[in-house]
Structure formats: structure tokens, C-alpha cells
Write a structure and sequence with these properties.
single chain; 70 residues; mainly alpha; 434 Repressor (Amino-terminal Domain); 61% helix
């Protein structure tokens, strides 16, 4: 399926965020993103750049490779 990696990474970001008990709104603010963009990223509707993934990983306090463990 096209974009399945995008969807898996988005779900993984959401999973880690929920495990850490961070609301999507707070997480978006922590990453300096709009909440709507964070929503699209987690839903796999946004193709994240490596820079975006680096920002997300830092905000979640995980190594970037954790975003690809699914």
C-alpha cells in the first residue's frame, strides 16, 4: 500500500506520545507545530521530513530510531 510507512510512523509517534501521557495539543506546542499538522502527521496524512522526525523524537525524548520500531 502506498504511504504505509508514513502511516506506521504516524501511529508510532501517537503511540509513544500517549505512553508518555502528552496531549496532542501540548505535543504540537512542544514541537512548535500547528495542532492540525500534528494531527495529520499522526494520521499518516503528512509526509514528514527527516528534520520533522528529529524534532518529534527530541520532543518525545526518544532516539529517532524508536519512531521506526513497529
Amino acid at each position: 500500500m502506498k504511504n504505509s510507512l508514513q502511516i506506521k510512523v504516524g501511529k508510532r509517534i501517537q503511540e509513544i506520545r500517549i505512553e508518555k501521557n502528552i496531549s496532542q495539543q501540548d505535543f504540537a506546542a512542544k514541537c512548535n507545530f500547528e495542532k492540525s499538522n500534528m494531527s495529520r502527521l499522526e494520521a499518516g496524512r503528512a509526509n514528514a521530513t527527516l528534520t520533522t522526525l528529529e524534532i518529534v523524537a527530541k520532543a518525545l525524548e526518544v532516539d529517532i530510531v524508536e519512531l521506526f520500531k513497529f
